[in-house]
């Protein structure tokens, strides 16, 4: 049994963060001098419980869409309860039990449905949830009847409305499990700071965007990669990165920061690239293994995700769309070229930052900066993409004021994109939607402001909240001992 004296001192947010201290008044205020930890309510259990509550509230937020059968623009946009999940259930053949990568089933092969435009991990999750729905909550006609009907008519077949909502709710449960797993990983990255995961658990962005798409699957693996790296397990870090990349592209970018950290000299003046090699091999092997079933089923359909993203132009939320609204014109090829050029420059800058920093940065800090760079120049910024930043942001800059200020800009953007899609902002100025463009730039400024704080923390480690809090707790402990 571990003796209390050997346990690392847990950093309580109310002891080091003025905003957390003020917000704690809602729940009775900060613990007193003589407070003792609860026998059962450990920080991790509190965090997981709050994640479950927030995910349940996210489901409640979608009740207007559930009540209207996902058919009302006033509900899905006006009340902000839109989700891709129910529409793709019938729109990609999942309602017919079709394997997403069955050769000849997609429109690209002359079949009935478009191929899922996501990486294989999300396609597998969506397909598995569909099969489970048809096993436990099948209210529509038989699969054989659906396959004989016109694809466009499947949505309106008797019982399909109830079944589609059941599919959404079952998917919500699976995504809640991903959120719980991500919170558990984050709470264990630093044994002294389990409460940092509370910034994810109570995130307004999580509440607003968790169920728009399946992105929480990739968030789970990113959190797992941060946990594995903190535990000194580079091979497992790579496996998590590979699994995350098989679900969304952005976890791949963590390999760059891992390389930078390995290139830094240790106390003896040596570089050790073996951890990076282990991470790279783990990522490659796990990615290949997960992609193999899809690729072997249909290489043509497996490639759809890559072709789809290469061919699309300026889309929702991107700075490219805002510039287009301002009168500039860009071809998809131009956007592709400049996006990668600017992103490459950002990656180079982050690498230099990590190498010249006075103290070794944390993986979350460098990873956050790289992913921000990618999202700022990407040709689309769907509302749920804020989830990509969430696990990295809460560890990169664990301060409630900064997190709430940044997330306020993200929530503002989410509200505006729904208003834009509902047509509430159209015609404001000669058919344009300047309010929506302002929302894009507000979100960009919010990300840049948080990134600037992280850069400052890396260059001036004394300003890093993690190091500040460790010093504060150590000083207080010494004072008590004296």
UniProtKB/TrEMBL annotation:
InterPro entries membership: GT87, UCP010361
> What keywords are annotated for this sequence in UniProt?
Cell membrane, Membrane, Transferase, Transmembrane, Transmembrane helix
Q: Would the keyword Transferase turn up in this protein's UniProt record?
A: yes
Asked if the Swiss-Prot or TrEMBL record annotates the protein with the keyword Transmembrane helix, the reply is yes
Annotated Gene Ontology MF terms?
hexosyltransferase activity
- List where in the cell it is found: Cell membrane
Which stretches are transmembrane?
A: 43-63, 167-186, 198-230, 236-263, 275-296, 337-356, 363-381
Per the record, what is one GO cellular component? plasma membrane
Q: Which superkingdom is the protein from?
A: Bacteria
Annotated coiled-coil segments of the chain: none
Q: How does it sit in the membrane?
A: Multi-pass membrane protein
Say which family it is in.
Answer: Belongs to the glycosyltransferase 87 family.
Protein name in UniProt: Uncharacterized membrane protein
Organism source for this protein?
Answer: Nocardioides scoriae
């Amino acid at each position: 049994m571990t003796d209390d004296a050997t346990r690392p001192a847990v950093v309580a947010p109310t002891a080091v963060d003025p905003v957390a201290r003020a917000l704690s008044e809602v729940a009775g205020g900060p613990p007193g001098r003589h407070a003792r930890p609860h026998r059962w309510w450990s920080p991790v259990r509190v965090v997981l419980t709050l994640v479950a509550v927030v995910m349940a509230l996210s489901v409640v937020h979608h009740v207007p869409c559930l009540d209207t059968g996902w058919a009302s623009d006033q509900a899905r946009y006006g009340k902000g309860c839109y989700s891709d999940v129910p529409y793709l259930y019938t729109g990609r053949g999942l309602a017919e039990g079709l394997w997403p990568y069955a050769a000849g089933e997609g429109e690209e092969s002359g079949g009935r449905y478009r191929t899922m435009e996501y990486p294989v991990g999300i396609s597998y999750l969506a397909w598995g949830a569909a099969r489970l729905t048809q096993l436990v909550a099948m209210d529509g006609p038989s699969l054989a009847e659906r396959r004989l009907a016109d694809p466009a008519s499947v949505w309106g077949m008797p019982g399909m409305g109830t079944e589609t909502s059941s599919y959404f709710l079952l998917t919500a449960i699976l995504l809640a499990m991903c959120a719980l797993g991500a919170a558990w990983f984050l709470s264990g990255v630093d044994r002294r700071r389990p409460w940092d995961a509370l910034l994810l658990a109570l995130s307004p962005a999580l509440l607003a965007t968790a169920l728009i798409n399946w992105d929480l699957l990739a968030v789970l693996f990113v959190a797992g990669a941060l946990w594995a790296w903190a535990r000194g397990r580079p091979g497992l870090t790579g496996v998590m990165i590979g699994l995350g990349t098989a679900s969304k592209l952005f976890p791949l970018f963590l390999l760059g920061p891992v390389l930078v950290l390995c290139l830094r000299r240790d106390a003896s003046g040596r570089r050790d690239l073996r951890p990076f090699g282990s991470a790279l091999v783990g990522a490659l092997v796990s990615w290949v293994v997960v992609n193999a079933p899809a690729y072997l089923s249909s290489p043509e359909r497996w490639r759809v995700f890559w072709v789809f993203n290469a061919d699309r132009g300026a889309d929702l939320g991107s700075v490219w769309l805002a510039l287009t609204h301002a009168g500039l014109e860009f071809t998809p090829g131009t956007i592709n070229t400049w996006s990668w050029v600017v992103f490459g420059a950002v990656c180079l800058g982050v690498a230099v930052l990590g190498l010249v920093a006075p103290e070794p940065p944390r993986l979350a800090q460098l990873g956050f900066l790289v992913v921000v760079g990618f999202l700022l120049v990407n040709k689309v910024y769907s509302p749920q993409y804020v989830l990509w930043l969430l696990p990295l942001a809460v560890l990169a800059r664990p301060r409630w004021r900064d997190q709430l200020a940044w997330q306020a800009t993200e929530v503002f953007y989410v509200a505006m994109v729904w208003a834009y899609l509902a047509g509430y902002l159209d015609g404001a100025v000669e058919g344009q939607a300047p309010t929506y463009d302002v929302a894009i730039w507000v979100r960009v400024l919010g990300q840049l402001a948080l990134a600037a704080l992280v850069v400052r923390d890396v260059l001036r480690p004394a300003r890093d909240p993690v190091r500040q809090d460790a010093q504060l707790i150590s000083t207080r402990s010494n004072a008590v001992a004296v």
